Amino acid sequence: MSLILFHSPKGGVGNTFLAAHCAMELAARGHDTVAIDFTYQATLKLFFGLLPDQPLVKAGDPSGDEIVVAGVELFDGEELGRSAAFRQLLRQPGAQPFPTDKVIVADIAAHDRALRQLLMPHAALHVVPLVPRPAALAALVHVDPDIPLMELERTALVLNMLDDTRTLARHSRVFLTQAFGDMMAGSVRRDESVAEAMAGFDSLAKLFPHSPALGDVAHLVGVLEQRAGLVAHEAQASA
Amino acid sequence: MAIRNDVSSLLDRLGRQDLRYREFSDPLGDMEMWPIFEALLQDRRIVGEASTPLDQRRRTADAQQRIKAAPPPAGGKADAGPAIPYSPPSPPRPAAAADDPQVRAFFGQLGARGIERDS
Hints:
- Chain A: Residues 4-199 form the CobQ/CobB/MinD/ParA nucleotide binding domain.
- The structure holds 2 protein chains of 2 kinds.
- Chain A is of the alpha/beta class.
- Chain A has a single domain, classed as 3-Layer(aba) Sandwich (Rossmann fold), CATH 3.40.50.
- Chain A is 36% helix and 19% strand.
- In chain A, strands 1, 2, 3, 4, 5, 6, 7, 8 and 9 form a 9-stranded mixed β-sheet that branches.
- The longest helix of chain A is centred in the last third of the chain and has 16 residues, at 212-227.
- In chain A, 54% of the residues are buried.
- Chain B has helices spanning 5-14, 35-41, 44-47, 53-69, 101-118.
- Chain B is flat.
- Residues 72-89 and 112-119 of chain B have low confidence and may be disordered.
- Chains A and B meet through helix 3, helix 5, helix 6, strand 9 and helix 9 of A and helix 2, helix 3, helix 4 and helix 5 of B.
């Protein structure tokens, strides 16, 4: 199983940014990677340097030509995600619909916890982006409606937009790291070049290859690879 | 690489080619226990349901103790933990109920690229 969900109970925390750049980093590490944008905002493509009016291939539409950017095959999954048949399939006990020879990154909107719940049994990992702000921290109670956060086993917290010059941000990182232990997969620094690259409809890696956020994502993906079982621990440790 | 003018002039003044970002890592002892942190540690949706109020207090105390006792994070980065045990992958097996054309086409799309690469 190599489905990785990106879903946060709080919007505006950089969920799509992390999904996009983790997908690109996974592809750069040699994984056959697919990214599916299940949101109605359809902004995943912007992080790949595509234009807002540039349509992605709709998941489930066999007539579309494949779009592969930075080694990642991109799909618009918004319609599929709302499909009753798709949701019914995901509910079936024992169903294993996703191929195991690909890494599938799913970008899920904050409000769509129902889709997160349906995909979760099929996922190797659920990445929960956060920002060091009280509202995002308070939303941690909503990661899973049934299971307390500390008891979740396939969940990785990521502190995004971290600015270590801010007291609450520093304290939040220390708190999350110590309170949640290994569930905290890493942090990504606040980096204005992310927005600047998007505003120029270009990729962050091309415009700002030394972006600190990119470096942090690369480190983070090393951790996620292990958590999702994509690499042997020994192989990663020797890398 | 595009570089902003103000950054470029700063680098010139410093006689450097690039900037190194400083981590403002916070010693654990200096961490303030903000009420939002305490609220999270006392919320059953975070720490789970305890069988008795005393158990609940113990769980909260344990989590708080971990925070007090743990060493400061090294280098400001979360260490990579051990890999979660993971069962070997099994071949894709779309469920029989997936007769919907859109769903069938979607899983066909997911397999299509691999097929093309093999050919």
